[in-house]
Design goal:
Blueprint (H helix, E strand, L loop, with lengths): L2 E4 L9 E7 L6 E2 L4 E6 L4 E5 L4 E6 L6 E3 L3 E6 L1 H8 L46 H10 L16 H10 L13 H14 L3 E8 L2 E12 L4 E2 L5 E3 L4 H14 L21 E3 L2 E3 L7 H5 L12 H9 L6 H9 L16 H13 L3 H13 L19 E5 L4 E5 L19 E3 H12 L13 H7 L6 H10 L6 E3 L4 E3 L13 E4 L5 E5 L4 E6 L2 E2 L3 H16 L2
Parallel strand pairs: 15-23
Antiparallel strand pairs: 1-8, 2-4, 2-7, 3-6, 4-5, 6-8, 9-10, 9-22, 10-11, 12-17, 13-14, 15-16, 18-19, 19-20, 20-21, 21-22
Helix pairs in contact: 2-3, 4-14, 5-9, 7-8, 8-9
Length: 555
Amino acid sequence: MIKKIIMPSAGQTTNTATVTKLSVKVGDEIKRGQVVAEVETDKATLPIESYAEGYICEVHVKEFDVIDAGTPLFSVGSRDDLAAAQNPLKQAPAEKEPIIPAKEQTTAEIPAAPIPAAAKTPDAQHVATPAMPGAKKLAAELGINIASVAPSNGSFIKTADVRSAADKKPAAPFVTHSADFSVLRDYISYITEVIGVPSAAVTVWRGHEELFFCKSGVMDRKTNEPIRRDALYYMYSCSKVVTCIAALQQLERGKFLLLDPVSNYLPEYADVRVGHGGYTVPPKQPMLIRDLFTMSSGLTYNLATVQINDVVVSSGKRCPTREVAKAIAASPLSFDPSTRYLYSLSHDVLAALVEVISGMRFSDYVKKNIFDPLGMKDSCFHIENIDISRMAAQYRYNEKTKLAEQIPLTNSYVIGTEYDSGGAGIISSLDDYILFADALACRGRGATGARIISPSTIDLMRENQLDPLRMEDFHRAFTQFRGYGYGLGVRTLIDRTAGSLSPLGEFGWGGAAGSYLLADPSNELSICYVQHMLNNQERIIHPRLRNITYASLGL
């Protein structure tokens, strides 16, 4: 029986990859779990492992081919299948499966909306007490007289000291009539009518109050029903911010320290190995919990390993989160922990960590400690738990045709009914997720009055954690984040010279289908934007959405 080895979903924004190495050829005998090829996505080089044993009967791709998830790579069969494939005259010719055409990775043809000019930043003042450069820049950004800032350590003024001073400063009153959201409203229409996203919606809040809401497009192009305000979406990687807050709650309760080895809580991570070509070696240092937050663990975003497939089969497709985390530990690391940045399954493992420490299933923990306190009634982890009629149709943008093509309403990162993916598992609505963003912008306190996290932990979360080498990795993976660093699971603005109109310390993240979360504690401002299109064009949409919003508010 012929089996196909296909390109898996690699956990990247586009699910597109380049074949960089073919390790086997027609006639080779392979074993289950053997690496048969390597592919390079926009964020990582990934090994492709065989699920099958037998002989390579056909190779469907060439090195340097650009392929999509689902593209067949090899046909594997018995010795008789190999003989038949090598002697086609002895059998009826079989119709070859079509290869999915490669996508052209260009966005140059999409016109850009005009971006408002940035306001001038006041110069930082010189003071007798020395101040770190970042503290001076932040003080100037927030309009704080740095001479009035008291250093916490008695010798140097740090960014945390400036933020503390800003917290004590009365918030400037917001005059509603000074805001003009006409450009933002036009931009939401532009996203659907010109860029071609089937639907788009945004809400802007300040200090627990909504300032603006707008939507455009349809629930489903087949029915042309206008997009509902209460539509539901896969939030994909916007889930990561919730997961990191859940883990930071445990930090606040003294359940772990950031510099603790992961293996203290998940014992299988004591035995991880680092891949070096065809062999593995022990890591030079243990994987730390901080490495999970900062995507510095060495893990990859490969959910298609033999070990994970074994969990899928043995659990009857339930895939409990804790069991998947054990399977993730069995794959070689891409590098020694703490040395590089690679977008990965780290936050999925962080969810398993929360399960072990709290003694609760991760989805139950999040509901009890985040969703319910904030009044997020629409948010959950599995499509079986929602009213499917409210789910917006899902699309994928085709770079070649410049069209959004409808795809099944599935999430490839949720591999089982009990897999609460900390990295990509949440389903939510615009009005629910803004409640979470608002709580972050208001330094941990939600519109209900409930506090889910402390102000000092919010500040820790948005401190850049990356050294220069890892910053290069980060900016290589996410070119739209020039000017941002990476904190404990979030982008965080550390340099406005790349063109952001938001202030230093603004933070958040986005999702594969285009969702976007922004929290700005200095202004108690939050933005939540939703769409439902993979290959989401976020490099075009999100920075403009941010800048237009700040210009609309006159900030």
